[in-house]
Amino acid sequence: MALTNDDLLAISQLLDVKLKAEIQPIKNEMQTLRNEIQAVKTELHGEIQAVKAELQAEIHQIKLYQENIMMPRLDTIESCYTSTYNRYKDSVEGYEMLQEDNKLMKDIIMEHSRQLQKLA
What span, in angstroms and rounded, lies between the C-alpha atoms of 77 and 116? Predict the structure, then answer.
């Protein structure tokens, strides 16, 4: 029994109808999944934007705090440190000169003491 073209066409149409009926629920499920994914994407995007805005606000607050509170304090600390360093630097130079003068005076006093002992 040979199948004619009409028979093959009829079989093809039956298979198409049957496949379409079986594929349609899959297509529907895929569309549902696409919609759910889009909803999740939209929700996540909204949440990310909210977190981003919050972080930007916090960073702005931190920058303001640094600019208005921390930097002036650091400038004050630096100024005090620099002026103290300069005073000590000058004092150390004077101290070294005093040590040299003291050593010279000791040497002179020792020499005078020897001379006085020779005279006595």
Answer: 57
As given in the structure block, the two tokens for residue 72 are 């002036």
List the structure tokens of 27. Answer: 């297509």
| Cα–Cα distance for residue pair 119/69, rounded to 1 Å | 74
Q: Which of 102, 103, 100, 105 is nearest to 113 (CA)?
A: 105
CA angle, 24 as apex, 29 and 9 as ends, to 5°? 160
Tokens of 37: 């994914």
Q: How confident is the model at residue 42 (pLDDT cuts 50, 70, 90)?
A: very high
Whole-structure pTM value = 0.52
pLDDT per position as a tens digit, 3-34:
888 888 888 888 888 888 888 899 999 999 99
C-alpha to C-alpha distance for 60 and 66, rounded to whole angstroms: 10
pLDDT of residue 31: 97
Instruction: Quote the DSSP letter at residue 4.
Output: P
| Phi, psi angle pair for 3, to nearest 5° | -90, 135
